[in-house]
Amino acid sequence: MVDSKKLLILVGSPRRAGNSATLAAAVQRGAEAAKIEVSLRFIDDSTSSFLRDCRQCRLPNGECAIEDNYRALFFDDFLPADGVVFCSPVYWYGLSAQTKVFFDRTFCYYSASYPDSAQVMAQMTRKRIGLVLASEETYPGASLGIVHQIQEYCRYTHSEFVGVVRGIGNSRSEVVQDPRDPSMAAEQLGREIFNRRYSDFRIDTERSGQVWPQDNG
Ligand SMILES: Cc1cc2nc3c(=O)[nH]c(=O)nc-3n(C[C@H](O)[C@H](O)[C@H](O)COP(=O)(O)O)c2cc1C
Q: What is the best residue among 92, 98, 100, 139 to mutate for testing ligand 1's pocket, by most ligand atoms within 8 Å of CB?
């Protein structure tokens, strides 16, 4: 591998041949073309429950007692990743429950009652994050709540929110017919996830006044 960075693609749809999965496969193709180490997981392969009240279900050793494979997804795939692309259908103008539960259950391990929470918190920060959405409706407002949520997640975790792709479709894989070609944009996101230019200024940020290298020829 030329680039040793790791990318995790998390798919939050129940449909294995659905639109989020189709776009996720495009992200994967792009990442592989850039020689990035990439893995793709369907969140509901590993999650069978919402977050519960930790006081009721945390084991004496601090571990979460929910019996599914979320722990492995979180520790083996998510924490070591340098970048994560969340691929979700738009459900009721929000993330799918599958995707949301992934975020909610991080709490089991970064909350102070988990013995290694400091280490977990450190590993949750400073990732590159991408967002890929599939929806039936085309109007821009349908995805704004989700974009805002991921933006806040990135701010909270000192992560870099490097791109959003939105594909339109309803029946399985119909997104490939979207004339704006979201598959190409998803592939590009995968290819560029670690080197796409990212900036988020404050009033006092020092900057040169030019964004791109100038062609002086
Ligand atoms: C429960 C449910 C809620 C949905 N809510 C919306 C919505 O609010 N806006 C929208 O544009 N599409 C909505 N859709 C349509 C899906 O976003 C669309 O079919 C998408 O392509 C599904 O992605 P998938 O194939 O990855 O599951 C909804 C679909 C379901 C099943």
A: 92
Extents of the domains making up the chain:
6-192
* Whole-angstrom distance, CA of residue 85 vs CA of residue 187: 12
Q: Which atom of ligand 1 is nearest to the CA of 93?
A: 8
Kindly give the confidence (pLDDT) of every residue in the chain, 217 residues in length, as a single tens digit, with 9 standing for 90 and above: 444 899 999 999 999 999 999 999 999 999 999 999 999 999 999 999 999 999 888 999 999 999 999 999 999 999 999 999 999 999 999 999 999 999 999 999 999 999 999 999 999 999 999 999 999 999 999 999 999 999 999 999 999 999 999 999 999 999 999 999 999 999 999 999 999 999 999 999 999 889 998 887 6
- According to DSSP, the residues that pair with 128 across neighbouring strands are 83, 160
* Ligand 1 proximity of 92 Cβ (cutoff 6 Å): yes
Distance, CA of 61 to chain centre = 30
CATH number of the domain at 6-192, please?
3.40.50.360
